Amino acid sequence: MNQRMPISRRNLILGAAATFGVPAVLAGCGSDQPATPGKASGSSLGTVTIGSNASDEVPKKSLASVLESFTSAQVKINTVDHNTFQENINRYLRGTPEDVFTWFAGYRMQFFAEQGLATDISDVWRDIGGGYTPAFKAASTGSDGKQYFVPFTYYPWAVFYRKSLWAEKGYEPPATLDEFTALARKMKADGLIPVAFADKDGWPAMGTFDIINMRTNGYDFHISLMAGKESWTDPRVRQVFDTWRGLMEFHQPAALGRTWQEAAQSLQQKKTGMYLLGMFVAQQFPESERDDIDFFTFPEINPAYGTDSIDAPIDGYMISAKAKNAEGAKALLKHLAQASSQNIATKLDPGTLAASSEADTSGYSALQKRGAELVSKASHIAQFLDRDTRPDFASTVMIPSLQSFVGKPNEIDSLLTGIEKQKANIFR
Amino acid sequence: MAVKTRRYSARDVTILVIGLGVAIVVNVGLIWGPTLASVGLSGTDWNGIGPIEWIGGQNYADLADEYPPFWSAVRNNLLWLGFLGLIATPFGLFCAVLLDRRLRLSRVYQSALYMPVVLSLAVVGFIAQLVYSSDYGVLNAVSGLTVDWLGDRSINIWVVMVAAGWRHVGYVMIIYLAGLKAVDPALKEAAAIDGASESQTFFRVVFPTLRPINVIVLVITVIEALRAFDIVYAINRGRNGLELLSVLVTENIVGEASRIGFGSAIAVILLAISLGFIVTYLSQLFREER
Fold it and tell me: Which residues in chain A are contacts of B251 at CB distance < 8 A?
């Protein structure tokens, strides 16, 4: 993902990351100055540095705007190209990292906390905890029970469709897998490709796997499987791939040669009926058609779990273990945890939602409002496969394996045996 | 027995130390050091942060038995070498021979064939996507087919090799063209007087005189095949049928939770393959010089 993939989702659209990286780094150097000059008198906590992966224009601007209102210390932002930041995170954290750095919740955060590369911020959480739901707190907690992460924004995954197309054809959002299959059949009869699908980049198929697994076996099994504690040859995992194989005939063919942007465009052009993706799917729609986008959560498969879990990756901030100004960094995290700070970001970037439950949702677009409602109904929030498991397992095992399943959906047993063997080598 | 030893003055020693010493330091530091470090790391399990754990040949066993992309990459690297060596290179020579005959508009053909060489392979990769994409690609649009050229793992390596060959042909052509221009026309005339046919003249007289060029082209072809990386990385990051050893090394070593030991093992395999060619080439070279 673009292992480099996970949130680079947004970045991918920009294509030429290499040429993009240079100006981003240069721009980063340029902004390597106090963001609040002349306020030194109010800066009781010295200078706090931030290592930021917000190299895209919109997130970069939103971070700068959020920091304008932070006055208790001076802030220096060092912006690095998104993918580069992610790929070098190991070396970065062991070298001379900034005090605060942008990162992801869940296993991805726990992995670095366990290596002793992040600072325990449980004391910050005593102040800010009231602003977050238990699900967000759990996603910020390391395997030792301490908090290491402050959630800032997130975006849910769901099945997106065009309201106008569905109204015209009389389609209704399905509540169960049977209804989903019936709807897909109907779409096929109407000459539509029912489910848009793309997996050239390797990560989008992870979303489908996640949701079918959580609907079939529940959140706890999913997380335990991701942590390497369950066997991939378990009949429960097989069941997931069997269900998926049954849905393959409704998926857009030739998915391995298509990017998610192309699949999203097919949805926009009303060639496909629905698309399971993150809320960033809206980027592929012209501004004027964005109000025509709606979604439903992936339908129930096993009544024991209903629709209680979704993927909703959270982006946020952590403090590096080598932070020089820990006090200032903690003050900054408290500022970032405020609903008002997050609202600035959600206003500038309509593909995201504020992580704080105290955030003001009145300024949200219709889609953002629906997204927030969906997440508030979910009792478990997963972070997406490549953030819920070891990064090396996700990129070197799961991407090739899921692509091989998409190419040959009938060879499930040999595939699962292969994944299990490789898992044993990585989680040793 | 008196051993006759040559005495070096202090100045000689200084010059020796500077002249040889710098070369040795650079050689060891930049070539042998990293090579041996890779070989050493390939026997360990290390994520780049925690402790290094010695696991012997385990990485190699895992590679061969349990890592499906590995064999796919070995196969693709060999295919790549075979394709460039047996199809693209001879075709480049063929173009050079045709252009050497001073056809009309030969300058135009020459430029057209040479043009792709100035593009980086990553750019060729982007162009290939515009041509082969199943939804918006030129090829499907013009031919009316609905083939998933880049997604179907049984065909994507072939179409990508065609794109890589497109560039390689121009490269080889220009080198051979320079070589052909340097062949003494008297040789060809002599062959013609002796009654040799066109093809006999070429294969028996002209081609053997191109020997130094052939060696260069062979070396270039092998290097291009083993270092292939950018074109598949630009297309789909070297996955799903486009695996190459160079990509697997990068994929495993660079990244968040690096599998440095495992990636080094792949790098060592790539080194062994390269050494095979280098040793063959050098021993051939030395044998003939003797």
Answer: 3, 395-396
